[in-house]
Specification:
Layout lengths: L18 E2 L2 E2 H10 L5 E6 L4 H11 L12 E6 L5 H9 L7 E4 L8 H14 L3 E7 H7 L7 E3 L5 E3 L7 E3 L2 E4 L7 E6 L3 H4 L5 H12 L20 E4 L7
Parallel strand pairs: 3-4, 6-11
Antiparallel strand pairs: 1-2, 5-10, 6-9, 7-8, 11-12
Helix pairs in contact: 1-4
Amino acid sequence: MCGGRGTRLGGDAEKPLAAVGGRPMVDRVLDALAASGVETAYAAVSSHTPRTRERLVARRNGEGSGREGESLELAVVDTPGEGYVADLRAALSEGPTAPTLTVAADLPLLDGSAVDAVLDARAAADADALSVRVPAARKRELGASADAATRYDDAGDAEPDDGDSTGDVPAGINVVGALDGAGDEAVRATRDARLAVNVNRPADRRLAERILRGDPDAPARPTGGVEWLDRPDSWSAADGGEPS
């Protein structure tokens, strides 16, 4: 998802083009997808991100991204720019078949192993969709912003994050099912920094850069698979289904 304005991040660059460690975030996310088992990526842009669209078209054509010849097939999809949900629906209507991995362009610590771990978790759950979440307390522990995120209570209902350390916030990477919401959804939570650091504010960018550099006082960037929190399985059975 590459269509947001990113006003909280500041600066003149469109949010997907904001550089973290000298490389635009959208390229870092696409690098992670290219290093995973994903074969085709649909990059959803909007009228708010014309320069992002230009860069993605150039990358699709093998120009200037530093990733010429990669196997990831890239399609650029124009969306109305009316918000995350509306743009996601527009992108999903362009051809991806459910289940579909969705990734925000503000996860610069993402890598191929983490992407594959999310896909494997959905397959292991044998669910139509997977919601990936991070404890709000972990976001604060890392020093990452969570003030504008959604918190989930124990019943799975969404409400604004009010600093409750028991709540979870969305990770920015999920697997979605049918557009009409039919099917069941599994929920997995993790403390993994690769999925926990969304760059929404200048402090988030500084945090991500410290982690990428491996600064001694920075949180470690995990490698390999994602460690999921040991919780009872959570399900939302929109069609009355049960976990197998």
